[in-house]
Amino acid sequence: MNHIISIEDLVFEYEREEKLEPIKALDHVSIKIDKGSFTAIIGSNGSGKSTLAKNINALLLPSSGVVYVKGFDTKDETKLWEIRQTAGMVFQNPDNQLVSSIVEDDVAFGPENLGIEPTEIRRRVDASLYAVNMYEERRKAPHLLSGGQKQRIAIAGVIAMKPECIILDEPTAMLDPQGRQEVMEIIEKLHNEGITVLLITHFMEEAARAERVIIMDEGHVAFDGTPAEVFANAKKIKALGLDVPFTVEIADRLRSRGIDIPKDIISMEEMVDYIACRFK
Amino acid sequence: MIRDITLGQYYPGDSWFHRLDARVKIIWTFIYIVSLFLIRDFWGYVIVLVTLALIIGISRVPLNFILKGLKPIFLIIIFTFVINMFMTKGTPLIEIGFLTITKEGLRNAFFMGTRLVLLIIGSSILTLITKPIQLTDGIEKLLSPLQKFGLPSHELAMMMTIALRFIPTLLEETDKIMKAQMARGADFESGNIMRRAKSLIPLLVPLFISAFRIAQDLAMAMEARCYRGGSHRTRMNGMRLRKRDGVAALLIILYLTLIIVQAQGILSLLMMSVIQLIQAA
Ligand SMILES: Nc1ncnc2c1ncn2[C@@H]1O[C@H](COP(=O)(O)OP(=O)(O)O)[C@@H](O)[C@H]1O
Ligand SMILES: [Mg+2]
To answer: Is residue B233 part of a domain?
Structure first.
C-alpha cells in the first residue's frame, strides 16, 4: 500500500440553520498521497483547504465519498485514534493550539493521550524538542516565545506522537519571515526523515519547495502536479486569484522578451545557476 | 499594568520546595490559609512571617517578584485597612473631623491588612514553586475520591490547566484591544464609575468573541492530538510521594501545632514570661 492517504470522491457540506442551504465546501475531490511525499496545497481563501485537512484527520467526516488514512476509513470509529495518531495536524494560530503552560508538558500532551509509558513519553518529548531545536526552551512558558518558536513546539507535539504523516494548515501564515524560515526548515527536515508532509500554505515560495502542488478552487482540485507543471499555468493560476512564485514570474517575463528559460526552473537558486551558466 | 499579575505564574527552579509533591504543597497552602484566620496576636504573625521567609529563602523566588503580585490588589488592601481603621468602635485615639480612629480600629486595620497581604503572598507562592501541570495533577488526585459522588475531577483539573495557560494570552489580547480602542479615541481612565464601566463594554465584547474563538481552536487542536478525557491518559511525570514529602508533612504538623498553641494564647504567655525573665536578668 503506497498511498498513506486516499481521498475518493469526497464531498463535504457544512450544515446550517434549517432554512438555509448547506455550504458545499468540498465538491467531489479525489486525491491520493504517496507515502513519504511532500505535497503543498494552495488556493484562495474559502477554497476548502482547511476543510480538506480536517477531513483527513477525522475532525470532520465526509458528507459523501470516502477518506482512507493508512487504509482505515475515517468513518470507522474504532480506528479514530489510530487515524489521528497517524496523521498529526498543526494549525494556523500558534497561540490557540498549545494546551499547557510549560513547553515540555505541552509536547507530552499527545503521547499522554495515547496512554504511553512515562519513561517512553520522556524520551519522545526530548527527541521531539531536539528535532525542532527547542530543547533549550523546554521549561519556558509558551506565551514568552516567538510565533515561530510556538509553531515549532506545536510541530514537536505532533511528532512526539510518532505520526507517519503531518498535515500543516497554513502554519506560517501568522509568522514573521524569520519564523517562517525556521518552520519551513523543520518541515523539510521531517520530510527528509521519511514523514509524509501535507503543507497548506498561501506562500507560493513555500509551495515551490514541495514535490507536488495541488491547487484548490471553490471546493475542487484545479491543478495537480509537480511545481514546474503546475506553475507553468501562470495565467490560469492568476485568474484564480493566486500568485505564482517570484522566480516563475521572472522566467515568464524573460520568456516574453525572447530569453528561453526552461519550464522546470522553479527555485531562485536554479534560476541563478541557469542564468549564470548561460551568460557567462 | 495588566501584565504585573503574578498570581498563577510559575517561577522555574529546582529547590527542595520546587521538588515537593504538589499534593503536599496544596494541602500546605490550605492549612496556611486556615491558619491565618486562627491567629490572635502579634506572635502568630511572627510564626507566619518566619515560615514564609524560610520558604521564600529556600525556594529562591525573588522577593520583588512576589511583591509585584500584590500591586493589582494594592487598592483593596488600602481599602480594607482604612475601613477597619475608621469603622471599629472603641477607645478614641485621634479625631479628624467626624472621623475617629480608635485603638481597636488601628489594631483591626493592621491585622486585617496583614492577613490579606499574607494570604495573597502565601497562595501565590504555591503557584510560583509548583509546575502548573503538577498543580492541576495534584488537584485532580486530591479530588479523585470525590469522583464516586459524581465530581468530574479530571475535567476540573483540565479546565484549570487551560485557564492557567490562557490567562497570559487573554491578558495580552485585552492589552491589544485596549490599545486599538484607545487609538480610536476610547477613554478608559476618566469619568465617574458609571462612565468607566460603560467604556469597558467595547473592550469586553471583542474579548469574549476572541475567547470563544480560542476555545473553538483549542478544542479542535486537542481532539486532533487524540484527547478523549481522562480515562486513557498516562502522565509523563507520575506523582510519587518521597521521603522529603514525609519531612514536609511533619513540618506542616509542627507549624499547625505552633499556630494552635498560639491561638490558645499559650505562646504569647510563654513569650511574655521569657521576655520578663530576660529583663529581670
Ligand atoms: N465551521 C463552518 N461552518 C460553515 N461554513 C464553513 C465553516 N468553515 C468553513 N466554512 C465554509 O467552507 C468553505 C471552505 O472553507 P475553508 O475550508 O476554511 O477554506 P480555506 O481553508 O481554503 O480558506 C468556505 O466557504 C467557508 O465559508
Ligand atoms: Mg483555512
So the answer is: no
